UniProtKB/TrEMBL annotation, chains A, B:
CDD domains: HTH_LacI, PBP1_CcpB-like. One of its GO terms (molecular function) is DNA-binding transcription factor activity. Residues 2-56 form the HTH lacI-type domain. Pfam families: LacI, Peripla_BP_3. Keywords: DNA-binding, Transcription, Transcription regulation. This is LacI family transcriptional regulator. SMART domains: HTH_LACI.
Length: 339, 339
DNA sequence: TATGGATATGAAAACGATTTCATTCGTTTC
DNA sequence: GAAACGAATGAAATCGTTTTCATATCCATA
């Protein structure tokens, strides 16, 4: 493996000059520059990343924390983040916490050991006070997930509004027995949506019963399970708000299999605007999240923080959500889309 | 940021001894070991990864090349690979080539610059002779995708067999007008499936017409498009083999929307056994791929190659595929599952 | 009582880059 | 014609580890 020393020797110049050529520093004569470039080509030389990282105190790698990559929402987030990071010359290390606080804490050592220049948290499994100490080692940016106590830049979506518009839509269709379905108790995203959900109910003077709440639904299978539970209730809901399109699709699938009709017997709202929403029959009313913009902003911010080295500033960037009305809530009426 | 030097100073020992404690070398007295551990704790010391990488000539990072993470098959592959890599203490860098040969070549520089210890290619966009020169910098392992000319370890699935069993299943149902639908011309995975497809046809003395071939279908939308194309043919196929469940789902969705019935008017076979196969109505007959086993094996192999430093050996590890029969091919009969 | 082997420790070199500082040579400028 | 400055180059320090080599002590064995 050729090193900068080899290039220097071959050209009869010093390491310094070779380094200058590599880094496009001024004050290198055209003659020597050519000489160096030729030698580099001839030796197949390429600078060693570890040596550069050590000397420059920067790895050009970012860590992105997500619960699971197989969740389509997070796939989309990873795709967008990787593309945005690449524009800045950063690589992305994927950290799947699988909802485990220990795994999350463990991955945090990537920052401590300087294996990454910064961490984007799209999922939080620990209390903030456990995460906070890592701030001394590098920037942390919250993306999608958030925590009011976290004194770091946060890029998020207005989840309260998301829960609100989806629920309001169901109320406008005349529903009063509306079930609530979300993924996880810990997530502030889910909590915010629930606030929006209840806000809409309150506006319409509709009361909420705790037996209509299902807070452990993540996947298609969970949706199927939840549907069965709802149908086992003495007073069945006529509509359901869900925290993901997969869960919504599971509910719809199970309902159809059992001979129910959507939305006549049960109106269903999803979340995320994934591809499956256009696949099922009926198609799924959902809430669109501007994932690309959010990812781009998170990367912009973290790159800036890496440069300025001020990590403990709470700046909040919020993007709006949008209701997409499809067939799972409005029957055979003409489908309309509203902001 | 505390360094090993700081720990040495605080304890009054040398860097060497501190390093020995960190690396669990023998020949450190219990007394000094405790002293060092206390000092490390007190200073919040943690070894710097870049320095270690430089000195040890190893980064403990692997690169995984995939076309797009939003493709559920690759999400699953990434999840499994990340978990397997973590067991060995490796981090995973995700490289999305987005089907671009240039991007792929560009990401290959991660190996050349020693930013990663090895590369797992689950997607190949360039001819092997373009990739081959990178072998001098570190190990490359093929996983899922493959190339006969590639003199490297290859972990793959028997795609010829996969195409064969899926097609044979359709032939057994009495179909003779069977369309073929795949993603990409370049991929050897797709080519192999086509070989298996044609092999089955030949066994049943059924001829294949090129107008039944659609080789550019990746997503749900492509499936919808392909369905329309098939229906525009003068002689419509009665069954279709597809290279992914998303495409199959797209075809089914569009067919139902247009008033056709599945499988009566069109039998559909998918590939990958994704979650959506149990979601659609009818559920989708598909081919299950043992992704986890494949990913685990690929990681095992690359870790071994990193240690032994012998990269240019063609070893092939092949895993079997399995047909999962569901409703999209067998009508209202009882669903059965066969190996 | 030498001799040799285990145990314990440290000084210094090495990994491969970048940067600081010094030096030299021209060219202006007053 | 001296001073000042810009351009071009290199020697050596530096980043933070690990490892090699040397040294010292202790204990058992011949």
């Amino acid at each position: 493996m050729a090193t900068i020393e080899d290039v220097a020797k071959l050209t009869g110049l010093s390491r310094t000059t070779v380094s200058r050529v590599i880094n496009n520093h001024p004050y290198v004569s055209e003659e020597k520059r050519k000489l160096v470039l030729e030698a580099m080509e001839k030796l197949g030389y390429v600078p060693n990343s570890s040596a550069r990282s050590l000397r420059n105190q920067k790895t050009s790698i970012l860590a992105l924390f997500i619960p699971r990559i197989t969740n389509p929402f997070f796939s989309e987030l990873v795709e967008a983040t990787e593309i945005a990071a690449a524009e800045y010359g950063y690589q992305l290390i994927i950290c799947q916490t699988r909802y485990s606080p220990e795994k999350e804490l463990n991955y945090m050592n990537l920052l401590k050991t300087k294996q990454v220049d910064g961490v984007i948290l799209a999922s939080i499994q620990n209390e903030w006070k456990k995460l906070k100490p890592f701030l001394q080692y590098g920037p942390i940016v919250l993306c999608n997930e958030f925590d009011d106590r976290a004194n770091v830049p946060t890029v998020r979506l207005d989840q309260v509004y998301g829960g609100y518009i989806a629920t309001k839509h169901l109320l406008e269709q005349g529903h009063t027995k509306i079930a609530y379905c979300s993924g996880g108790y810990r997530s502030n995203v889910a909590k915010s949506r629930e606030i929006g959900f209840k806000k809409a109910l309150a506006e319409y003077k509709v009361s909420f019963h705790e037996q209509y709440a299902f807070r452990d639904a993540f996947h298609i299978a969970d949706g199927k399970r939840v549907f069965q539970k709802m149908m086992a209730l003495s007073e069945r809901p006529t509509a359901v708000f869900t925290g993901s399109d997969e869960v919504a699709a599971g509910i719809i699938s199970e309902a159809l299999r059992c001979g129910y009709r959507i939305p006549e017997h049960l109106a269903v709202v999803g979340f995320d605007n994934q591809a499956i929403t256009e696949l099922t029959n009926p198609t799924i009313t959902t809430v669109h999240q501007p994932v690309k913009q959010m990812a781009q902003k998170a990367v912009d911010i973290i790159v800036e923080k890496i440069q300025t080295k001020r990590y403990d500033v709470q700046e909040i960037y919020e993007f709006p959500l949008q209701l997409i009305v499809r067939a799972s809530t409005v029957g055979s009426e003409l489908h309309k889309s509203e902001a």
